[in-house]
Amino acid sequence: MVSFDAQGKLSLKLNAQSPMVHFQAREPGATIRASEVKPKLDRYLIWKLKQQMGMDGAELAKSSKYKDWFRPSTDENVPPTALRYQMQIFCEEAPEIVVLNLDNDLKNKYKVEEEMARYAKSVSKYPIFYANSGVKDPKQQRLGIVSNPTVVIRCFNNALQKLIQAHLEDFFLVTNFGTMQSKGFGGFAPEEMAFNDPNNRTELRRAAELLKAWHGAKHCVLLPVTRVRGGTSFSSAIHTVECFYHLMKSGYNFKNTNEYDRSFLFKYIHKSPFNIGNEKEWMKKEGISPAIGRKLKLSPQEEAQPNYYVRALLGTASNVSYLVSENSSKHMSISISSKEIERAPSPIFFKVLGNSILVVASQVDKRLYNKPFTFEGYRSDTLWTPPENTPFDADAFLVAFANHYNELISNNTLPIYLEGARTVKEVKPT
């Protein structure tokens, strides 16, 4: 366990577990920022303290024992949330820059431009990152980094020091940073922790228990990384996340066949006790999206089920795209917006640790239910998210999908891009 020295200083070296999408990737020394890490660490430490003391945050900040631990709030009506310690983060070595996702016509530019020559090996290894789509200027493309920073904390409160020492390493096992955190980007772990030893899974099981506690989950699934030919360990990890999540939320069209594997979410929600349809079917019926012939027919009972914006349960999106026709490679984008919900993150969280990926699910925010969303494509119309009494449990859904995923593997019916995928298992304490 890390500890403070006599001068009130603590240092923790971190190793990157996955690339971080960084808004200043081209800047020297780019890495995680203390302005993002400290508020998250404060929330984690206060959560641990609340568990220990059986008090809420406001009570802690006001108590005579703990009030000196907090920095005063700028709003007297809002309880303090910042703890009294300082944080600095630096990298002794330059970070590795990775190109996240490129349009095909930009690949050659990256290979020949002097600025991007050293990034070429990373081109198109992270297709799950969509924000670069349509950005034609290479210098405007978002980049990722892989860095191994050192976190330095200075604190002169002995009791607060003990709290930080006890939970700092655990904090990095349950937290990701930067953009697309829930999809496994921006993951770090203490340098001395080894997660790739198949004979010693103690630290991995410990991380699973920490993730369950932090996300309020009953289950944690271990997803082995599927190695991608020609890819790095980092790109293979993100590719594995993409494939797993793609089958869960989006479904998959099998190339050169007339087969379509419907999104597991849609399969799941069509069945009892839900018995509801989804926005994809609704958009086709209403003429909002292209009405390409279905490869998967619905039963009469499913056809009669009411439609809702089901994918919102796994996180809202600002748009979705569909092929214009079966014989075209062109896509059209359908925008999705709501005046009441600006953004709802996915409750499914991926944490990359070495050659393993831990997956947990927190519960869907109750504010997301029974809300109208506007879909704009060929025409515009409104669809609501499922009603408040929908018994959707994200934790149970994750376990059900893990079983479905394993069935596809055993039946040899996984998409071809998941060739070599191994079964997932629930991580249980020893």
Q: Average pLDDT value? A: 84
Number of strands: 17
Strand adjacency order, main sheet? 3-6-1-7
Low-pLDDT residue intervals, each spanning 5 or more residues: none
The value of Rg in angstroms is 23 Å
Helical/strand content category = alpha+beta
Percent of residues in β-strands? 15-25%
Shape category: globular
The SSE order reads: EEHHEEHEEHEHEHEEHHHEEEEEEHE
Sheet having the most strands: 4 strands, antiparallel
Number of helices: 10
Helical residue percent? Answer: 25-40%
How far the N terminus sits from the C terminus, by CA atoms, comes to 21 Å
Helices and strands in order:
Elements: E1 9-16, E2 20-22, H1 34-53, H2 57-62, E3 86-90, E4 96-99, H3 107-112, E5 143-146, E6 150-154, H4 158-173, E7 188-190, H5 202-215, E8 221-224, H6 233-249, E9 252-253, E10 260-261, H7 264-270, H8 279-285, H9 300-303, E11 319-323, E12 331-337, E13 348-353, E14 356-361, E15 372-376, E16 380-384, H10 394-410, E17 425-426
Antiparallel strand pairs: 1-6, 1-7, 2-5, 3-6, 4-5, 8-14, 8-17, 9-10, 11-12, 12-15, 13-14, 15-16
Explain how this protein is built.
The mean pLDDT is 84. By secondary structure, the chain is of the alpha+beta class. It is built from ten helices and 17 strands. Strands 3-6-1-7 form a four-stranded antiparallel sheet, covered by helices on one side.
